[in-house]
Amino acid sequence: MAGLTDAARAAAVAGIKNSVVYAQLHTGAAGASGTSNIATGGRKIIVWGTVTPAGELNISSPLNFTGGASNGAVHSVTLWSALIGGTFYGEFLITGSSTFDSSGLYTLTSLQIRHTPPPIINLGMSQTDKDAVDLIVEQSMASSLGHQPGALVWVDGPMGVYKQAYGKTASLGGREVTIDDHFRLASVTKALMAQAILKHIGLGQLSLSNTLSTYVSGVPNGSTITIQNMMMMRSGVFDEQQDSSYLSNFIAHPSTGGTWTETSSLNSVKNHASQFTPGTSFQYTNSNYRLLGYCLEAVLSKTIKQILIDDVITPLGLTETVWPDDAVIPVPAMHTNLLHPIFTGAAGALTGNMDNMVKLGRAVINGTLLTPALHSQQMTTMSFYPYNPSTGISEGPPTFGYGLGMVQIGSWFGHDGSLPATGTAMMCEPYTGSVICVAENKQTSGLQAMSRIWHRIANHFYNGSADTVNFFA
């Protein structure tokens, strides 16, 4: 298994920069809680510099600790989240000059942090861990919230690799599902869209600050809505899924699309008022990524389907990932539910399999298609919101983050998706290099593939990592 790229290490160190804000000097070992042998003078606020592309971080200005014993010894510095109390983040031994001066002053001129991930040695997953994963999935399939006919799980990281299929393609009858089955990626499609957008930003063909009206006219607030607003679901555009015509076609003609077209989708957004001032709130809606697709089409003079093929699917070798022409999922299929891709477009039309979802997750976490700067920006640009079951997280942390086409739950990054007969989760942990992907062939309440199966598997291997932002900092 390949190690982390420089961009992934930089993203991990950026999390440390955001959490560690105070330093304390010690005259001896600080102890397990960081409170022993504290030098006088109190904690000092840290002004960090910029994280380098290789994942290195240093202070941008010296830290002056006063009140020490004249020419007395200094031993180490500890890092903290608060001026008083707070979280203790570790102890660093002093190298070089290690005494106060004659006036009792000690100046710390360098405090360098490097991200050194643990080695990924894949020796196979233990049977105990496999049994734990099996139990998590089986409990979900037996629960009233889950009760999925079938589910697929792929775990890949230092804990080993485990690929397992559970159940059948249908509740009544059907065959056994396999790990190679295809399914709708649903909103995991947005992760590919984000890669395409950021890739072309890196090529200078558009920018996060460009406005929607530059490419698409007639949308309310289009002159102030930015590419970044749409990527982060902060544009305020109307949700096409609330359009009465969309709903009637979705219900009556799921396999053909009825009279709903891409033009219908665009006109729905144009003909309804904005929901809020751009950049002031959050509303998850497919309309944002439909519009981003139209923007890319305007820039590149190609269909968004072809753009995704040329710029993401082919370069990453996602040979089983397709944008179907009709409602049928490529065989072998995890289920036979029919849904025409016109109802999701650039926000959720793709189908794929577990192998391709894991490849995509690893490419996203490593920044394979992006410049180091843009990858770091994607990994660190995140707005957090209170937990709400309607977001698709029915258990887990008190907040979730949504950024540039990326979800953050605890210390994990990726995306999830939900459609009729479909639930998906593709989540990656940058410090360990772990990837956990889940697919279910039912649209479960609260998206159990994410909120229960993924969440519990992630916490089984790294307890607390699916609940705590910057868990490994």
Topology overview:
Layout: H1 6-19, E1 22-26, E2 44-45, E3 56-57, E4 63-65, E5 76-80, E6 88-93, E7 106-108, E8 113-114, H2 127-142, E9 150-157, E10 160-167, E11 183-184, H3 189-202, H4 227-231, H5 244-252, H6 262-270, H7 286-300, H8 304-313, E12 351-352, H9 354-366, H10 372-380, E13 382-386, E14 399-403, E15 407-409, E16 412-419, E17 422-429, E18 434-440, H11 448-461
Antiparallel strand pairs: 1-2, 1-5, 3-8, 4-7, 5-6, 9-10, 9-18, 11-12, 13-14, 14-15, 15-16, 16-17, 17-18
% residues in beta strands: 15-25%
Order of helices and strands: HEEEEEEEEHEEEHHHHHHEHHEEEEEEH
Give the overall pLDDT as a whole number. Answer: 89
- How would you write the strand order of the largest sheet? 10-9-18-17-16-15-14-13
**CATH topology label of the largest domain:** Beta-lactamase
Helical segment tally? 11
Sheet with the most strands? 8 strands, antiparallel
CATH superfamily of the largest domain: DD-peptidase/beta-lactamase superfamily
Helix coverage percent: 25-40%
Oligomer: single chain
Distance between the termini: 23 Å
| Secondary-structure-derived class | alpha+beta
CATH class wording of the largest domain: Alpha Beta
Runs with pLDDT <50, length 5+? 117-121
Description:
This protein is of the alpha+beta class. The protein folds into two domains: 6-114, no CATH class; 127-461, Beta-lactamase (3-Layer(aba) Sandwich). It has eleven helices and 18 strands. Helix 1 (6-19) packs parallel to helix 10 (372-380), helix 2 runs antiparallel to helix 11 and helix 3 (189-202) packs across helix 8.
